[in-house]
DNA sequence: GTCTATACCTCGATAGAC
DNA sequence: GTCTATCGAGGTATAGAC
């Protein structure tokens, strides 16, 4: 096992645990157990717990960018691409009901902790915001593209928050259908 | 200082700190310092930290019920009352940008902690949900009142989440105006 | 590069004086 | 009813053997 492999493994498991349990509630012992290394070994790869958080955020930024690029390359029109975004809620429904949106809950937790990495985490939202604005611009809504992007982003966050609290699948399905109809209405 | 006074004071400060910093990040030492009592004295009033959480949730349920009752008694129509609900976002804007929605963030944190009190915290949402459904029913939307209530509740949660992440006042104002227009359109 | 052992701190919680 | 003193567990982080 090279150092890079172990490091990547740590970041991957930390990413999952930070999402499932929260950043503060996840101890280095949890991560070490998941990666099957000792707690001491951890400090060969990272100097502090905050450094892991930074690495996790960078990892999420990378995977998010890759996902958006993939959607962009898949050859549909802007409407199809916005539906890809909404489909995140469909595909991750179970996880969202259990742990919320990975982006929204991380930003929320870091805000409460008054953590310096809060602005880095918010860049994850910015990635979606700018990408969505690009799609709405392509649909001929260049003037209010950013407002439309924020609106849709906010709708997904609201659905995720209520999904966690109520675990009401009917509500999720209805809101998703409503969002799709709203998007279609923007272009018509 | 009677025991009831001290207890009430503890719950009041715990309520504030749980909102500002989160439940887990707030230690008994924080609360004791805010109330200006010793850590030991704490255990005369509560046996565990979880018991404080229960008391905080009950306090929030009580103050929320009182607020909804006040709105109901204030003598406007259902449309005015729904606007009172939306105005929470206006009046608590600064706090929401700093710490999010007190209900949404508590439910989210307790879900990640897999905490038994999570369902109690969700009752705070249920209070708003049922009250809003009553208003929509009064507006002649009895058949889909609950769906409309959940939709509006979700919208406010989305705004709160993005407000914390972006601290973008323009976005908050725009979404509030949009929500008001949406409510008006439901009754027309 | 990974380990064991451990330092040091803060946490929730308890005991007992006043 | 409030205090001081303290316990044991578990947190982050470090030292040094292998």
Supply database-style keywords.
homodimer; Tetracycline Repressor, domain 2; 188 residues; DNA-binding; mainly alpha; elongated
Q: Could you describe the 3D structure shown?
A:
Two copies of one chain form a homodimer. With 188 residues, chain A is mostly helical. Chain A has one domain: Tetracycline Repressor, domain 2. Chain A has ten helices and no strands. In chain A, helix 1 packs across helix 4. The radius of gyration of chain A is 18 Å and the shape is elongated. Chains A and B meet through helix 7, helix 8, helix 9 and helix 10 of A and helix 7, helix 8, helix 9 and helix 10 of B. Chain A binds a DNA duplex (18 and 18 nucleotides) through helix 3.
Can you lay out the helices and strands and say which pair or pack?
2 copies of one chain form a homodimer.
Chain A: H1 3-21, H2 28-35, H3 39-45, H4 49-73, H5 78-91, H6 93-99, H7 102-112, H8 118-138, H9 145-166, H10 169-187
Helix pairs in contact in A: 1-2, 1-4, 4-8, 5-8, 5-10, 6-9, 7-8, 8-9, 9-10
The structure holds a DNA duplex (18 and 18 nucleotides).
Summarize the structure.
The structure is a homodimer. Chain A is mostly helical and about 190 residues long.
Fold-level CATH name of chain A: Tetracycline Repressor, domain 2
Low-confidence stretches of chain A: none
CA distance, first residue to last residue of chain A? 55 Å
Q: What is the typical, i.e. mean, pLDDT of chain A?
A: 97
In quaternary terms, these chains amount to homodimer
Largest sheet of chain A: none
What best-fitting shape of chain A do the alpha-carbon axes yield? elongated
Structural class of chain A: mainly alpha
Residue fraction in strands of chain A: under 5%
Would you list the SSEs of chain A in sequence order as H and E?
A: HHHHHHHHHH
**Topology, number of strands of chain A:** 0
